[in-house]
Amino acid sequence: MEVSSVIAIIQVVDRVIDLCRFYVETAKEASSDIRSILLETSILKTVLENVKFLIQQQQNVTTPGLSCLIGPNGVIETCEKTAKDLVALFPVDIVPRSRKRKRDLATSLAWPLKKAKADKLRTEICHCRANIVLAITADSA
Known about the structure:
- There is one protein chain.
- This protein is an all-alpha fold.
- It has one domain (3-140).
- The chain has helices spanning 3-26, 32-58, 64-67, 75-89, 105-140.
- The radius of gyration is 16 Å and the shape is elongated.
């Protein structure tokens, strides 16, 4: 497994975290599903950072647990796709780095329409995280 692929996923997950934080900060009545996505993606980021560390420490030694995470349709690929899908749920014009922007009417109206999709993606993030933790645990045993 390459560290670069894990770093790429961490960057996408970081973007989800930034978007959720921005939405929670600017929308006083931000829904609980956004807060839940923020929590789950933050936990996933921590797990992925540990995976990155473990891969770096292995120095070309392949372990069965981490090896099962890679490949087409593997957990790592699914995790990246899911995080990108979460990013896509947010309006394009939201720029979390610029805290001066306030939410507009379109943003507040659009999110409830995306709630079901967001919940499905949050659940997928939970499954990805659980599978990654299971793989790490298997390697530690």
